[in-house]
Amino acid sequence: KELLETSGGNEAEARSLTNTYLDDAEVTMSILDTAIRSVSRVAIKKLAHRLRGSCLTLGFKALVIVLERLENSAEKEPQEVLQVIYQELLTEQERTKAALHEFYQNGAKL
């Protein structure tokens, strides 16, 4: 529903927003991985916040939940916990990508 609202009901615009998100998310996730490996807490928090905003705008609620956990945990949790949350994020990102692929592959209309 949020993707529909964000795109003004325009399928081409929805695809464009989706593709932009996926491209940006891939880069941001790579940087986030590095930040977690080096326990750069400020970077983790900022990157999770940025991704969460994009996911919120597009209606990717499951990703929003995981990213909010990561953002809130960035300052206080040990690296091991951050890595577990990051793995959950990767899993949810793959689910989201698969769902989007299926949605567009089946010619679904918004």
**Helix share bin:** over 70%
> How many H/I helices?
5
Q: Judging from the principal axes of the Cα atoms, what is the shape?
A: elongated
What percentage of the residues does DSSP assign to strands (E)? under 5%
Structure, explained:
This protein has helices at residues 2-6, 11-37, 41-58, 61-73, 79-105. The protein is mostly helical. It contains five helices and no strands.
What does this entry show, briefly?
The chain has helices at 2-6, 11-37, 41-58, 61-73, 79-105. The chain is mainly alpha-helical. It is elongated and about 45 Å long.
List its salient traits.
110 residues; mainly alpha
Question: What is the fold's blueprint, element by element?
Answer:
Blueprint: H1 2-6, H2 11-37, H3 41-58, H4 61-73, H5 79-105
Helix pairs in contact: 2-3, 2-5, 3-4, 4-5
